[in-house]
């Protein structure tokens, strides 16, 4: 087993902080993770709940996610919540013992994107568990994080729900970008975790009719249970697209104003462009393919707008309010729970990698 050597030190009288390291393809190990020093505007958080994201699974299976390659050991995890253990000298907004959800990306705050409020596009973003800047993640006993990225949870919102705010934020950001309202009929292609949170967010934003499409009946059944008005099983063959477009339009019973592609393949994006009404919108959330061949010119001639979605910005307060008021119930998405041992770590990632009936896998630390 590879033993991690770190540059940071930890005093002998401190609790040894353990974390889940990815060492190689399907090679995970719980090993010590010394924390950086606590800055004046930072807090130390004891992590209590961490969800597995699709990006974590990509690193587990291939040591890469899109164009980001993990060429050295890295701590995984970014969907997290915990309890404040220690405050930096200048922190006044939080108190020891507060239960918080963590926004995992630290932007530079100085570039034009950050200054313009679109900090999710910051090119110097340090994001938990990402090889883009080789920033260690939060699947650990404790982490140090800026206080302004830690959001206090109401008493009726659990730590598991707090960890689920990160994926929910993708859905909320997408619905904001698409201007979802009570006048918007929504199609969602892909009934995985992101498709499901988009569905929950779209309903909370007032969408009167939601149709969900997938290649897996099990996931469509879950989508139906979570409130989708109609679900449609489709194939992976692009040869079937023309008849499936008609089937989807008939299921909506009205115009499709916004299509969310939560997959990102030639077929799913082509379907979204073809099925959306003239003057409608297509939001590309899934990024499975770097390059696609799609019928863009006919869609442009019908003024179908294509909207890109990358992570989120300024979503934690709204997500917390949606959970607090019960407008969104995120709990049913948690399909499996594991503790934080070497055996359970490996089982959890294998379960997530195999798909099947696994929606969101949660670690309880």
TrEMBL record:
<dbReference type="Pfam" id="PF00107">
    <property type="entry name" value="ADH_zinc_N"/>
</dbReference>
<comment type="similarity">
    <text>Belongs to the zinc-containing alcohol dehydrogenase family.</text>
</comment>
<dbReference type="InterPro" id="IPR036291">
    <property type="entry name" value="NAD(P)-bd_dom_sf"/>
</dbReference>
<dbReference type="GO" id="GO:0008270">
    <property type="term" value="F:zinc ion binding"/>
</dbReference>
<feature type="domain" description="Enoyl reductase (ER)">
    <location>
        <begin position="24"/>
        <end position="363"/>
    </location>
</feature>
<keyword id="KW-0862">Zinc</keyword>
<dbReference type="GO" id="GO:0016616">
    <property type="term" value="F:oxidoreductase activity, acting on the CH-OH group of donors, NAD or NADP as acceptor"/>
</dbReference>
<dbReference type="Pfam" id="PF08240">
    <property type="entry name" value="ADH_N"/>
</dbReference>
<dbReference type="InterPro" id="IPR020843">
    <property type="entry name" value="ER"/>
</dbReference>
<keyword id="KW-0520">NAD</keyword>
<keyword id="KW-0560">Oxidoreductase</keyword>
<dbReference type="InterPro" id="IPR002328">
    <property type="entry name" value="ADH_Zn_CS"/>
</dbReference>
<dbReference type="InterPro" id="IPR013149">
    <property type="entry name" value="ADH-like_C"/>
</dbReference>
<keyword id="KW-0479">Metal-binding</keyword>
<dbReference type="InterPro" id="IPR013154">
    <property type="entry name" value="ADH-like_N"/>
</dbReference>
<dbReference type="InterPro" id="IPR045306">
    <property type="entry name" value="SDH-like"/>
</dbReference>
<dbReference type="InterPro" id="IPR011032">
    <property type="entry name" value="GroES-like_sf"/>
</dbReference>
<protein>
    <recommendedName>
        <fullName>Enoyl reductase (ER) domain-containing protein</fullName>
    </recommendedName>
</protein>
């Amino acid at each position: 087993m590879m033993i991690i050597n770190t540059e940071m030190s930890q005093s002998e009288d401190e609790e040894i902080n353990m974390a889940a390291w990815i060492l190689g393809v399907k090679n995970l190990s719980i090993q010590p993770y010394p924390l950086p020093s606590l800055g004046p505007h930072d807090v130390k958080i004891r992590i209590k709940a961490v969800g597995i994201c699709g990006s974590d699974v990509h690193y587990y299976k291939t040591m890469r996610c899109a164009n980001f390659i993990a060429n050295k050991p890295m701590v995984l995890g970014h969907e997290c919540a915990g309890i404040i253990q220690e405050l930096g000298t200048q922190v006044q907004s939080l108190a020891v013992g507060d239960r918080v959800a963590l926004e995992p990306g630290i932007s530079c705050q100085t570039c034009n994107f950050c200054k313009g409020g679109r900090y999710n596009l910051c090119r110097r973003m340090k994001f938990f568990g990402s090889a883009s800047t080789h920033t260690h993640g939060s699947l650990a006993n404790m982490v140090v994080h800026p206080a302004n990225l830690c959001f206090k949870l109401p008493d009726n919102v659990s730590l598991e729900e707090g960890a689920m705010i990160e994926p929910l934020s993708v859905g909320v950001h997408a619905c904001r970008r698409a201007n979802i309202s009570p006048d918007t009929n929504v199609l969602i292609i892909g009934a995985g975790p992101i498709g499901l949170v988009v569905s929950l967010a779209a309903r909370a934003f007032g969408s009167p009719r939601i149709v969900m499409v997938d290649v897996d009946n099990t996931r469509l059944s879950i989508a139906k249970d979570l409130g989708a008005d109609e679900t449609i099983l489709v194939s992976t063959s692009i040869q079937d697209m023309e008849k499936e477009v008609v089937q989807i339009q008939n299921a909506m019973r009205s115009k499709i104003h916004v299509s969310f592609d939560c997959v990102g393949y030639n077929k799913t994006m082509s379907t979204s462009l073809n099925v959306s009404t003239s003057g409608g919108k297509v939001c590309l959330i899934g990024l499975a393919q770097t390059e696609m061949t799609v019928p863009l010119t006919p869609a442009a001639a019908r003024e179908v707008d294509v909207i890109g979605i990358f992570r989120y910005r300024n979503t934690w307060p709204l997500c917390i309010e949606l959970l607090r008021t019960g407008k969104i119930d995120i709990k049913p998405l948690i399909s499996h729970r594991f503790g934080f041992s070497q055996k359970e770590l490996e089982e959890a990632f294998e379960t997530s990698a195999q798909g099947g009936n696994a929606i969101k896998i949660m670690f309880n630390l």
